[in-house]
Amino acid sequence: MNNKQRLQLLILLLLNYFTFALITNIPGALFPFWKADFNLDDSTIRFLGFAFFLAYGLTSLPQGILIDKIGSKKAFIYGSSLMAIGSLAFAFFPSFLMGLFSLFTIGIGVTALQIVGNLLVKEVDEDPTKYSSNLTMAQVFCGVGGFSGPWLIALLKDKMGWDWSAVYFVAAFLGLVLCAFALFTFIPSNNSSGEEVKKPSVADYLSLARNPLMLLFAFGIFIYVGIEVGIANWISTFLVDKHKFTVTDAGKIVSLYWALQSVGRFTGGFVLKVLEAPKALIAYSIACLGLLVAACLASSGSLASIAFIGIGFFTSIMFPSIFSLAVNSFDKSKESTVAGILCTAIIGGAVTQLLIGFISEKLTHSLALSLIINGVISFAYIAFIGFRSLKNNSLSSNNKTNQNSTSKLNNSNSNLAREEALV
To answer: Among residues 103, 287, 372, 414, which one has the fewest Cβ atoms lying within 10 Å of its Cβ?
Structure first.
């Protein structure tokens, strides 16, 4: 690719991250409206949020395989089209059943865009060692999009007097813009190097899914998304119950949690240029665990709020670091399938938040203790991925050193043999 094509691809990817993050974070702000308009109880309304995450769990791996077959450009167009179709359906026919269908459809589209987008970031820079830092920087726009969703809803309802369904017309428009931009942008194929790459068979896919290293990273994504979403979803309840915050004030802390994650991703892009991703994972995991314990045990709401916001900052580099370490650990021919397996694990966002509530209500009778238990397990595992990756890098370096030494020894023996032959 030339510089102009790289710039166009970069703009497309940033628009992609902003759009699917905005659409992903809309439901959380709309739950109160859906509850009233659809006459739902607290248990039933959870299915609307679960429908979106279910799409990740059920379709990520099949879509990874599909992207291997159809290529990145077609996958981009197909994903943004599904996102637009799902949004339009919900906007025109707002109901609970249509919501289930629409959010699941949107989830399929977002899954495809996340898989192909995360892989295409690797093509923006010729240096593969910058993949982790570039992916972290690109995902700053995820935070901007996520923060913009609730703001857009407030603008449409409070300032313009429109119904909540109007936000899905905006989402559909953004999806169509993304689709049109993708049509006229050069998007490199799954194999942009020009080398002939053998397409993996079904047996290869199954083997990869059972690979211990693949499972290590996939469970890392499951754990990370789970604890990230779990903490965010329980901050409000914790501050209201323990520190007597109003719902509105507690919600502001949640917004700041996501806002600081965007700041962390921006600064993390620079951090990862000077600090290896495994070392950053270890350091940031320790910081998150310390802040979570501080938040749960803080005597004042102000200290707890500051600690929770800090967790948002230090979770920032974890997803792109784990993702890039996984992709770089396998052959290029398997990249889409690796991404599909990793995105399947995003279903952790639906599981851990329920687990925190179950442990709190049934076992510990303490939300603070439940958060700490889940935090210790989650951040310790993420740190373990960092230690394991450092070990693998060390072994890889030693193998290269040994190969170079062997090569030099063979060359030396060959030269000695020539000298003896001349004598």
So the answer is: 414
Confidence of residue 320 (pLDDT cuts 50, 70, 90): confident
Give 248's contacts (C-beta < 8 A, 6+ positions apart): none
Residue type for 194, please? G
For the stretch 357-398, pLDDT in tens is: 889 888 988 999 999 999 999 999 999 999 999 887 665 554
pTM over 0.70? The answer is: yes
As a whole number of angstroms, the distance between CA 66 and CA 68 comes to: 5
Pair (228, 110) in one structural domain: no
pLDDT in tens, 85-128: 999 999 999 999 999 999 999 999 998 998 888 778 877 776 66
Residue 145, domain extent: 1-188
Q: Are 141 and 113 in contact (CB under 8 A)?
A: no
Select from 155, 188, 221 the last residue of a domain. 188
**Total structural domains within the chain:** 2
Same domain, 182 and 89: yes
262/164 same-domain check: no
